[in-house]
User: Fold these one by one.
Assistant:
Number 1:
Amino acid sequence: MSIGIIGAGQLGRMIALAGYPMGLKFTFLDRSDQAPGAQVGNIILGDFSNADALAKLAREVSVLTYDVENVPVEALREAAGDVPVHPGPAILEAAQDRLDEKQAFADHGIATAPYRRVDSREDLGAAVKALGLPAVLKRRRLGYDGRGQRFLHEPSDLDEAWEALGDAPLILEGFVDFDREVSLVGVRNPSGDTAFYPLSENVHEDGILRYSLAPAPKNGPQTKAEDQMRSLMESYGYAGVLTIEYFEKDGELIANEMAPRVHNSGHWTIEGAATSQFENHLRGILDLPLGDTRPRGRAAMVNCLGGMPEMSEVIALPDVHYHDYGKAARPRRKLGHLTAIRENDAGRSDILEQLLEIVRRAEGDQGPG
Amino acid sequence: MSIGIIGAGQLGRMIALAGYPMGLKFTFLDRSDQAPGAQVGNIILGDFSNADALAKLAREVSVLTYDVENVPVEALREAAGDVPVHPGPAILEAAQDRLDEKQAFADHGIATAPYRRVDSREDLGAAVKALGLPAVLKRRRLGYDGRGQRFLHEPSDLDEAWEALGDAPLILEGFVDFDREVSLVGVRNPSGDTAFYPLSENVHEDGILRYSLAPAPKNGPQTKAEDQMRSLMESYGYAGVLTIEYFEKDGELIANEMAPRVHNSGHWTIEGAATSQFENHLRGILDLPLGDTRPRGRAAMVNCLGGMPEMSEVIALPDVHYHDYGKAARPRRKLGHLTAIRENDAGRSDILEQLLEIVRRAEGDQGPG
């Protein structure tokens, strides 16, 4: 069975590595034969939006999936005429637009921050009046890792923010003074089975995930989050892994955004769960029985941003696992991650501190970002 | 860092899959671009004994290893002039000849069955006189999975056995009426660190491994076996994984043979230990710190011989993992394996029975072997 993956980044690479033991074969579509996925699978060189390249990929494989969210939905819909595409184009379309995404959340009882659509400078003024400050102005489309957004602290910030972002459709979101950030990674197959990993606690720096702790040190409203995600998945006939990132405030979850794919905050599942999110994504899109999501101990996952630490220093630590995506170093770029498994929260706190010290030292070595 | 692997079988494939997260790259040397390793890495097409092909491989990589034992030692020695070869040619040479192998065992206090060298029909008669019957006549070189050997039950068996095997140097080994078979998988790096997995209990059928239980249900003489293997490794300046297969009789180990490589009886370590034998082989040959060999629960590994079971039936069982090597089916050929992790021996016994029933059904489906 051959799987086509649009995008050959680290997510696609880890999907392929999870799928080889299952006897699956992988062909990627991406622009570089040096991409992380291309190092471990076949590649068709081309842009995601290139209809010919997409059609060529679709002809070669039994099912299509993607590891990026900026795939043009129309091209995907066309490819879906020839071969199943999972997750389906409809939910990708919703995920690509923060306004549609919030509507999808609302349809399934998933709380979000208050928000207003902003298409003009006048809209922005009215939205700030309605929601108050602080608030966050965001591009509706193609923002990730904190790009394409501005915090508005006081009225004088509005002009500059409009100047920077006003060339595209925007949304203003009320600022959530959260206690912490968590995410839920779940999976569904077309037969309707679902499975969910325990909530992960995520800490970001400058809009980029720094580390995740899973299961989260303090339980969140796991069951409610699962019920809501299951309802959302049902309505889209979802297949594969879905991730929702939340703010948690006073024990309640407020959805920030969703990703219809495997997710950085689920990387801990490779060593930290009975079945990884990558294998479960494949099980989901192939309509296979879903794998056990039970955690093996307490996992800490730390991203390597802009520089990789020395492997020998990292793997000298017991039950610490090194993941190098094979990417060229660039400031703040996600080059790899480290995962430690410990028996209890205290042990996990200790190793987290050690790993953060190690990755920061390596990142500092790369010179100023 | 690029690793060259001579032989692109399932062992090489699993080494590469373990090495990709470490940021390593792999080039195989083998005769077919459909070989299991070639499906997940680069391949140079050629015979192991082809000096040009070996030299080409050596030029492309930083270190050479192998997943087969029938690599011509002279060719390997020549390649070792250009690039480190681990494990070294000397121990491979010993492992290729049952007589040298027994001498190597004896040098480190490792017990073996009594044996005699057999170069003629007369030698055979004298050897049987000395060791008694039953006994096992074996080719000294290139035997594996039960090939190239005959059981001698009574004097009238000698002529036919000589007829079948007498065209090559032989060894007669006293028959060991063992209680069970076990194996020790260990690893060493050039800095001299060693690590050992718990003994695995192995059950063979027709000379081919049917299943392994690890850690073994009943403890064997683990420490003594480790001390002896460490001594053997030291004397060869060993790097990488080494396996010794033993008969156990009245609580004592009697070495049957060694393999200077990762081993089928260590496949359980992928899910069943903190670090897999494949990752530890790479750590060993690269002189990196060795990984934690601690078991995660009680593992049962069952080989799929000649036919693969339906993946969906297998992976519907909790914490059961499917490994398909991507090989064409042939009777009795090792096509894949299944590994189950359970919390205790009772749970492991139950799932073992289930898995044996599943694989036998699939093997029966392939028609008579």
Number 2:
Amino acid sequence: MSQLLGHNYIGGQRSAQGDIRLHSLDASTGEALPAVFIQATEAEVAAAANAAAAAWPSYRNLPALRRAEFLEAIAEELDALGEDFIATVSRETALPTGRIQGERSRTSNQLRLFGQVLRRGDFYAARIDRAQPERQPLPRVDLRQYRIGVGPVAVFGASNFPLAFSTAGGDTASALAAGCPVVFKAHSGHMATAEWVADAILRAAERSGMPAGVFNMLYGSGVGEWLVQHPAIQAVGFTGSLKGGNALGRLAAARAQPIPVFAEMSSINPVLLLPEALQTRGAAIARELSGSVTLGCGQFCTNPGLILGLRSPAFSAFIEQFKQQMAAQPEQTMLNRGTLANYRKGLQHLHDHPGIQHLAGTSQGQDKAQPQLFQADVSLLLKGDELLQEEIFGPATILIEVEDQAQLFAGIAALRGQLTATLIGEAQELTNWRGLIELLQEKVGRLLINGYPTGVEVSDTMVHGGPYPATSDARGTSVGTLAIDRFLRPVCFQNFADELLPAPLQNANPLGLLRLLDGEFSRAAIS
Amino acid sequence: MSQLLGHNYIGGQRSAQGDIRLHSLDASTGEALPAVFIQATEAEVAAAANAAAAAWPSYRNLPALRRAEFLEAIAEELDALGEDFIATVSRETALPTGRIQGERSRTSNQLRLFGQVLRRGDFYAARIDRAQPERQPLPRVDLRQYRIGVGPVAVFGASNFPLAFSTAGGDTASALAAGCPVVFKAHSGHMATAEWVADAILRAAERSGMPAGVFNMLYGSGVGEWLVQHPAIQAVGFTGSLKGGNALGRLAAARAQPIPVFAEMSSINPVLLLPEALQTRGAAIARELSGSVTLGCGQFCTNPGLILGLRSPAFSAFIEQFKQQMAAQPEQTMLNRGTLANYRKGLQHLHDHPGIQHLAGTSQGQDKAQPQLFQADVSLLLKGDELLQEEIFGPATILIEVEDQAQLFAGIAALRGQLTATLIGEAQELTNWRGLIELLQEKVGRLLINGYPTGVEVSDTMVHGGPYPATSDARGTSVGTLAIDRFLRPVCFQNFADELLPAPLQNANPLGLLRLLDGEFSRAAIS
């Protein structure tokens, strides 16, 4: 099983028609790993999209319970992967074993959570308005509504979560849950990992009797453009850079049939430190916050990239403590050489900016990433300076001292959309800053109090989304069960005989769903 | 009140800074009506967008009940408009009095229905996952989620529904319900009507204590482009042509911050006539269907533009009956001269096409619209001929005879996305055509059996949407309560003290909402 074939996955078969050979790299050494991956040709991309389209009618029509069993089978297969698998992921990403094991559990539990959603059935959003033949001036006809998948979905995995945001990650899980077959574009940073996981998905598909083509995977750079442009693809899920997400969005909008794209892209995740909290527990905050900034080498979408405080002796004291904490953080190996090069470039831009001062951090070399702390003049924030608004992917963050409350509000207002914002404050002062909570709601997908944004719970309540450029569409999330909504659309049935209706809408309510029945929620069967 | 000022509505004030003077036309005579409307300048468009943005924080934070009262007040004001108003609408649109009165009721009831949604509170989609401090390996923190409006919405009214899809129509009602202030672009076809309705909205806003800027309205052509490009606008609702909707979609995607557009555009609404039904009640179907094709002069988005039947003596007999019915339909005045010119052009394209044959209809003149029936060769459908796929706005329809079931399926598969599809069949034969029902689901927003697609019930269950080009985003609807979803986005609150949470998420459940609490739906308060 550790022998990797390196061929594309198309309709349940392996395919290698191309002649471009790709290698995955050892993340620590930069050396090419032995396995060879064959880049997909344009014809193979089309074949994968068509295989997904061919699987769609039968896959979407499976009872939700069957799709739940499929997702749960993937989870089992993932959990059963052994030491070899963990070693492969670690070698391709430089992530430590414990992190990979934790991310694997998160990924399989995420699949199981979507299984629960499918069993619960609320994703159908079933609604029934019974006929009112006597209504005046016009009778009302029987109308029923539920949701179906949009069709085949193209998914692009992220470099920083080789499991949870990748082959069998949240986008794939939510699309499959919605009844949409997936064509997955493997990330060049962890192609061997992708192959292990794709094999697990295919084993699960086979033993749960899924149609061939329910899951497909392609290797290679540039193949994603063909994929998004293929007419069979009906939606796109993406996690990655602002540049990459924007490019996919433009391609999708320029199609003969435009399709929706959900791209999770760029967020600097502001953290606001309120005065009383700093006074009461500044040292602890400095310690915890430096831990959040450097967690996983700062390679999280929710990494705190901007720290705001009000000018005060307490904030000045905090800055000193935070400098020490950041200076004491160890260097770490990044996901790959490209990521490190980008981090170096990002740091250089900060060093070169006259309004930005370097506060802490060892000089950045060519090898591991050094944690870094900067301080920017508040005017940069108020002017909307680009450098301050762009995510620097790595263990670095920027402090800003604001004069007063008015300037803090103006600074927040100048921020673009974010995945998260965090308030650190004492109970009483938070009550006095209600207006700030309101303003922040307009900017973010998730608002935290006295916590740190790294660490994203996979649950019914999570929002890993937010206004642009955090994502391309603030109405979605890529983590949590609400992610399924991105790939569902409503269909209305008018004047249908009961036996012609899909099960969720039948009178007997065979699935026991909570349905909106004549304007009230009910699990009742109707006659 | 019948004295129209003709100035733009900005932040509760009237404004006329421009020097382009516009006139509304009498739809029947084409003569300019006396009132003058002043086209908005670019600065006025910006002022309107900024007024909406200024109203947003206070408007979105009003209790949902207050917004319900506002919508209900608009409904009351609309219903209170007198004979003068009806006469104005009739003069601008050539629609008969009865239709206008019916449409007014539909519009005010639509506002009241959104009031019910606001009182019901399910639009919040409240979810709570309580903290699990003892969970292993990591504790779970308290997480809660609800939905807020996306921000100011630009709405473009339709020519064919001067009330229900216009100033106080479904897009405006759903945006206002979602907590989003509106900037409405008045349709040039009924500017006087728009002014009457805008005045009604402003009276309602004043007596229900809404912030200035909750509703704004602009006159003029071209001003819509400035509006969609203004940074304060966060979403767009549009009903109109494919060309117009596509243009807005491109503008929205090209913004520095791309925003979602819901455009309802083009649908030919296929009607499939099954053999037994034709045998049993062909004459009745011919009569009913001709009524649906010519209803409201064929100026409905759901007008049946394509009629498919299987080659058989029954279908041949139906064609003869349908020819007679269509030939007997009276001429009607269209909404305006431009609409008539487009209808004439559309008919000419059909006449000129070698694969299309004219079956019935008086020669189309320069005055009123003549109902027309054509028959196209099935090869046009199978080849995806553009002419067959494009909506012809007016009382015309096209028949196609298919050879057999396989050809029928191939023809359906070749269709683009539709608002509706209709099956006319007897009970037993419908059971045998289940596969067709499945295939049609993939193409449409609404599927009807033994009914006609004209006539769109405003309800919880309606879907007035569908895959492109029926709309720009199949995940939405512009009629029915689900329309509110287009303008809502989720926000997650992590580790919030109860008193800092918005009411829908507080422990005591003060709004009595049905909430997803630790994975189960419940109205329970929690401690």
